[in-house]
Specification:
The complex is a heterodimer of chains A (199) and B (240). Chain A is mainly β. Chain A contains three helices and eleven strands; from the N terminus they run E-E-E-H-E-E-H-E-E-E-E-E-E-H. Chain B is α/β, with parallel strands linked by helices and 240 residues long. The chains are: A mainly beta (199), B alpha/beta (240). The interface between A and B is large, with 40 and 47 residues. Chain B: This is Oxidoreductase.
């Protein structure tokens, strides 16, 4: 237990839902990003997975939309402490995209239109844990929330769900991304409250 | 990064809904203007709530400053603005953030664009510039609803007078002060064009405020020809 601050009571405990430590519930959908919002027309959009040997696997918008689509409903947790429960998305499972990609890599570096990057272990993108999503709550994903398409990796803090994602580099070595280089945790498990380096 | 015990040693009222807290944090490491801290409160039954707040001033030994805007349905900010008393403890950890920062070694022109309480980390940069004796040209465009909502009014007036190379322009969205030329309006292209730097000078731009404000301003800046990589943003949603 921390140091008690006299007079502080906090919200009534009874209404507290099952959230990761240090998170609070929001009905809104706040935005965290480091710069201007990129605008990417769908007819110029592409998604590229590149393996550690340099082999590239490309999808145009239409090719991506022709893949099997899923509709995950998940809880999301931002490192800035808001959580949002039961959000519904539509997109392609990373299992589908990685199927047929020949790799022995252990790590992935997602990169985005606008230059954002974030790193994850490749195994966190497999087994029904991650999607490339283009629809939020039944509508096209708005640009400020990462449209036309973003990653969705809901079991990690939401900065790992790269907005405006353009591709994934598969790598043998772990390469810290944008926020990871700026002091945030390399892995970012909300249930272990891995917010910053050293947590 | 561990939690440190801190104590309120002074406070200043900024607006009817915001106050600056001066905390003494023994062992505090140095920080850069633009960085933030997490503040954690603990209730008698062990319940805890933590929020992030931008540091309002450059490093000053064991003392740090944050300026907190009361969020009406918030859990933490109403306590910090209205009820937190001098001498009482909280816990603090940080500094956090390595992107939305201004380093005193930087020499290029800087444009700061603030919406409401988004001025706090930008004020840390203005104060840090002064403290470092920097001559980097600074401009601040500060959008507020009314004159009463503006933070740091007296100090900014004084700094514009005393700090060579600092300009401050206000935009009022609801109500302008008496004698103000022009109507209240939302910050637009003309304001950024008139009071900002042209892209040719390759300024570094820092924008901080509510999400919609930051979206609008950063789109304007990119539209005016500022490279997206030269525009750094910090947004806040409803953080209580």
């Amino acid at each position: 237990m921390g140091i008690v601050t006299p007079g502080f009571q906090g919200r009534p405990r009874a209404e507290a839902p099952d959230l990761p430590p240090g998170q609070y519930l929001t009905p809104d959908f706040p935005v965290l990003s480091a710069g201007p919002t990129p605008r990417v027309p769908r007819d110029q959009w592409e998604f590229v997975i590149s393996s550690e040997t340099g082999t590239e696997y490309r999808w145009s918008w239409d090719e991506m939309m022709a893949l099997p689509q899923e509709t995950p409903t998940v809880d999301i947790h931002c490192v800035t402490r808001w959580s949002k429960l039961g959000t519904t998305w539509r997109g392609v499972s990373l299992d589908t995209l990685l199927d047929g990609v020949d790799t022995a890599a252990d790590y992935a570096l997602a990169h985005s239109y606008g230059g954002y990057t974030t790193n994850l272990p490749l195994e966190d993108l497999r087994d029904g844990q991650a999607w490339l999503v283009h629809t939020y709550d039944g509508d096209d994903l708005p640009a400020e929330h990462g449209g036309p398409a973003r990653l969705l990796v809901p079991h990690l803090y939401f900065w790992k769900s790269a907005k405006w994602v353009r591709g994934i580099h598969l790598t043998v070595e772990d390469t810290p991304g944008f926020w990871e280089t700026a002091g945030y945790h390399d892995y970012g498990d909300p249930w272990r409250e891995q917010r910053y380096q050293g947590d | 990064m561990s939690w440190r015990a801190a104590r309120l040693v002074a406070h200043r009222t900024e607006t009817p809904t915001a106050r600056t807290l001066v905390l003494e944090v023994p062992g505090w490491p140095a920080h850069l203007p633009g960085q933030h801290v997490d503040i954690r409160l603990t209730a008698p039954d062990g319940y805890q709530a933590a929020r992030s707040y931008s540091l309002a001033a450059p490093a000053d030994g064991d003392r740090i400053e944050v300026s907190v805007q009361r969020v009406s349905d918030g859990e933490v900010s109403p306590f910090l603005v209205d009820a937190y008393r001098e001498g009482d403890p909280v816990e603090v950890r940080g500094p956090i953030g390595g992107w939305f920062v201004w380093r005193p070694q930087q020499t290029e022109p800087v444009l700061l664009v603030a919406g409401g309480s988004g001025v706090v980390p930008l004020m840390a940069m203005i104060r840090g510039r002064r403290a470092a004796g920097s001559r980097a040209p600074f401009r601040l465009i500060y959008s507020v609803r009314t004159p009463e909502d503006a933070f740091y009014t007296d100090e900014l007036r004084r700094r514009v007078r005393d700090d060579a190379g600092l300009d401050v322009a206000y935009v009022y969205t609801r109500q302008a002060p008496e004698g103000w030329r022009g109507e209240p309006h939302r910050l637009g292209l003309a304001d950024v064009n008139t009071h900002g730097w042209p892209p040719e000078l390759e300024p570094l731009v820092y924008v901080c405020g509510p999400t919609a404000f930051v979206e609008t301003v950063s789109d304007l800046l990119v539209g005016l020809g500022h490279p997206a990589r030269r525009v750094r943003t910090e947004r806040f949603g409803p953080t209580g």
